[in-house]
Amino acid sequence: MAGVLERVRRTAAEVGPRFPLYADPDTGRWTTTSRGSWTGGFWAGLRWLHALAHGSAHDRAEAAACTGRLAPWADQDTAARGLVLWYGTALAAGPGDDRAAAALRDRAARACLAAYEPELRVVPWGDAFGGPRLLARADGVPGLVPLLPYASGGGAAAAHGHLACHLELCLSEELPRPAWEALRGGGWTGCAEPAPGWSRTVAWLLLGVADGLHFLPDDEAASGSRGGVTAIVLREAARRLMALRLDDAAPLVPHDGDHTGPVDTSAAAIEAVAALKLAFLARAEGRHSEADRLADRAEAVLRRLCEQHLSSSGGLLDGCYDAAHGIAVRHELVWGDFFLALGLAVLSGLVGPFAT
Questions:
Q1: Which of 97, 94, 96, 32 is closest to 69 using CA atoms?
Q2: pTM for the whole thing?
């Protein structure tokens, strides 16, 4: 963990006010963006983890400034605001709570609620990155599930509907399909990209299910609303998703597509964090054998990542950004670094499993 956080410090010095996206596996040099794209929240999250570990006022100020640079995303039409503005603000709510980050989180929650389509039961993927607006995508689930309830006047109900719709669509096929487009006359049709077998489909859904079980109340008002999702439904979805990727027989690091595709360590890191969350929930409900198995799985994944995929500078290599288009297929990815750091932070007790 010390090595991973040292990499954060060095990256901050390299990129300045820009946001790292992916780094060359041979040189370690980052490709950056000016506004952060859909990954900016993970860089801010890494800055907050570094600040929490080191505790200096300077580190906290730098993390807060990084989060502040995410503010324009609150007004962008995309469900990826969950990834940007939940992960970019949630860790600021530690010792010496950062009020600006909390205000940005609340503003983002209200904006996402305003974008919610009640008939479709989704916050659409949106048009911020081009392409069709009325999409439901697996990567539009994490972040939005805990973020939406911060908006009063229907945020929790919207989170219920959003999660329920994505689970119904993605799990309607034996191999979960990550992306669906709403049809003009009603209903949905599966998208060709990302294709079933995408490395992060199950990872993102597992994270959303775990957060749904923790953050969304299973009371009559929420679960009884149109399209609400109950804890029973979430546990069944978790069971199916865990069988795909958290079973003892599943590879610790998934491939993108079939077994001939590149591995994706970023997906493994996300799955490890989801497993730690699910282990915490299982233990709280007295299911100790399940909790032990999930915790062991998470630790085994994190150990594999640290022992076989960590660069000498502390970056998580062998992440696959976009195999279909041949973009950064064996690189260090900023969200891979974030979820590795978060998993290690949970294991070490620096943060709780639901800090984000």
A1: 32
A2: 0.96
Record the tokens describing residue 7, joined without a space: 């990499």
pLDDT band of 63, cuts 50, 70, 90 = very high
129 close to 38: Cβ distance less than 8 angstroms: yes
301: nearest Cα among 269, 325, 349: 269
C-alpha neighbours within 13 Å on the C-beta side of residue 275: 31
Q: Which residues pair with 333 in a beta bridge?
A: 22
Of all residues in the chain, the percent with pLDDT exceeding 70 is 96
210-220 average pLDDT score? 84
